[in-house]
Amino acid sequence: MHFNKVVKGSLQFIFLMVLFLYGSNIKAQNFNQDLQKLQLAYKLISTFYVDSVDNEKLVEDAIVGMLKNLDPHSEYLSQEEVRKLNEPLDGGFEGVGVQFNILNDTLLVVAPISGGPSEKVGILAGDRIIYIDDENVAGIGLTNSGVQQRLKGKKGTEVRLKILRKGSDKLLDFTVERDKIPIYSVEASYMASDDVGYIKISQFSATTSSEFEKSLKDLNKQGMKNLILDLRGNPGGYLKAAIEVVNEFLDADKLIVYTEGMTNPRREYHSSSEGLFKKGKVAVLINEGSASASEIVTGAIQDWDRGIVLGRRSFGKGLVQRPLNLQDGSMIKLTIAKYYTPSGRCIQKPYDKGVDAYRREIYMRDVLHQENDSVSHKGPEYHTKSSQRLVYGGGGINPDIFIAADTTGYSDYYRDLIALGVINRYVLSFMDKNRVGLKERYSNYKEFNNSFEIDDKMISDLLDEGKKEKITSDINELEVSLSLLKNQLKALIARNIWGVNEYFQTINPNSNEFNKALEILSSDKSYSNLLN
């Protein structure tokens, strides 16, 4: 690649964009000197280095080097990384629309995605895909990435599948026309009690607002008076989506969040009069995996005393990134401001000790045995907007009620079963043999949840599956984890038959955060005391 094209087309573009867009006060002379220094370094390396040099990679490495010492979230993304980044946040991708797994070196359809092209042509859960476009994919060591390469493709293109279905003595032919496959950010939505609804948001994408609105309408029709909003493990996403979710809860003209940076003046975002849940009681569940847009939602609800927050201190990611697109389709995500809650708390946790220390901080919370991180982490004091309750800044959102992670059912044995995929493989195998019988026996999820139990034979079969991975069962560790193990198995079976909604309905009753939220929402006195 030509020297002038690489350097002037990348480095100079970056610096000129910074100068033009952000009003930098760097003098042109100093800028030219700095740029000439970079150009000279590049030319010296290209000319005199002992081995051949990949010029494009050299420039990319220079950009990465400039960004890595700024803050933990400014970064360079290649063209391919940009494409992969946008897929989940845009709310979909293009393909045939199946959830799959590889069982015994065979491509198994776990479930066709609802409304997707595979479901429309009649592909069913439990089907085995043997041929893709006349290529045998059974018994060849197929990988997940290999499946995606073969099944993903542009909308409107076709893929031919030959499928082996239980009960059929020949392969079935299907032609599937690829289409836009939705990725849902509202994972679960159901009535947790007679008057308490539950909504789980996994990320804030382009479709979150419409999904959330639909869930609220459905739950309102079912008699919802109060709501549990589950943001545990939600890494964030689009600011617009977070603002639209908060707007469902707050009265008109309430400050939701504001941003501010050295070269970016304060910008405020306010609620409107529209919204579906302005009055009912709210409980927000968070943990150390709740970040960015999740923290904006939680901080706004907490600062306006609109609901209670339960769980553990959130991650503390409150930096505003501006995407700067480069000519080749790559991108620089550059931090330009910070997020602040309505009370003035900066969501971003400190990063002045370096990127490594910043990334380790989330794990150090457990290593240091901070049983009540909300108490041990007391930063600057702030007060909520309505009742003037004391809340703390310093990074992340501290819950109103701290609930430690429940590790009573965890053991090394349980961890190994999860880590090596034994539990998932066992469930796939179990469903392959019992799907038809289970559907005949249980006409709906309620019947299944009330009467289905994980019996001793299932546990014994699971242990045998573990032995294949050389996981030695320990009777004491098994006893510690047995209840957790049974609940996980039942939830995964429910998901395999019905969907993610039923998975959470099965798993949540064993969650301390969930149960505490239900308890508080059922008591007007307890709820009011927390908010006053």
Automatic annotation (TrEMBL):
<dbReference type="InterPro" id="IPR004447">
    <property type="entry name" value="Peptidase_S41A"/>
</dbReference>
<feature type="domain" description="Tail specific protease">
    <location>
        <begin position="169"/>
        <end position="361"/>
    </location>
</feature>
<dbReference type="InterPro" id="IPR005151">
    <property type="entry name" value="Tail-specific_protease"/>
</dbReference>
<dbReference type="InterPro" id="IPR036034">
    <property type="entry name" value="PDZ_sf"/>
</dbReference>
<dbReference type="InterPro" id="IPR001478">
    <property type="entry name" value="PDZ"/>
</dbReference>
<dbReference type="InterPro" id="IPR055210">
    <property type="entry name" value="CtpA/B_N"/>
</dbReference>
<keyword id="KW-0378">Hydrolase</keyword>
<dbReference type="Pfam" id="PF03572">
    <property type="entry name" value="Peptidase_S41"/>
</dbReference>
<comment type="similarity">
    <text>Belongs to the peptidase S41A family.</text>
</comment>
<dbReference type="GO" id="GO:0007165">
    <property type="term" value="P:signal transduction"/>
</dbReference>
<dbReference type="Pfam" id="PF13180">
    <property type="entry name" value="PDZ_2"/>
</dbReference>
<protein>
    <submittedName>
        <fullName>S41 family peptidase</fullName>
    </submittedName>
</protein>
<keyword id="KW-0645">Protease</keyword>
<keyword id="KW-0175">Coiled coil</keyword>
<dbReference type="GO" id="GO:0030288">
    <property type="term" value="C:outer membrane-bounded periplasmic space"/>
</dbReference>
<dbReference type="GO" id="GO:0004175">
    <property type="term" value="F:endopeptidase activity"/>
</dbReference>
<dbReference type="GO" id="GO:0006508">
    <property type="term" value="P:proteolysis"/>
</dbReference>
<feature type="domain" description="PDZ">
    <location>
        <begin position="94"/>
        <end position="167"/>
    </location>
</feature>
<dbReference type="InterPro" id="IPR029045">
    <property type="entry name" value="ClpP/crotonase-like_dom_sf"/>
</dbReference>
<dbReference type="GO" id="GO:0008236">
    <property type="term" value="F:serine-type peptidase activity"/>
</dbReference>
<feature type="coiled-coil region">
    <location>
        <begin position="468"/>
        <end position="495"/>
    </location>
</feature>
<dbReference type="Pfam" id="PF22694">
    <property type="entry name" value="CtpB_N-like"/>
</dbReference>
<keyword id="KW-0720">Serine protease</keyword>
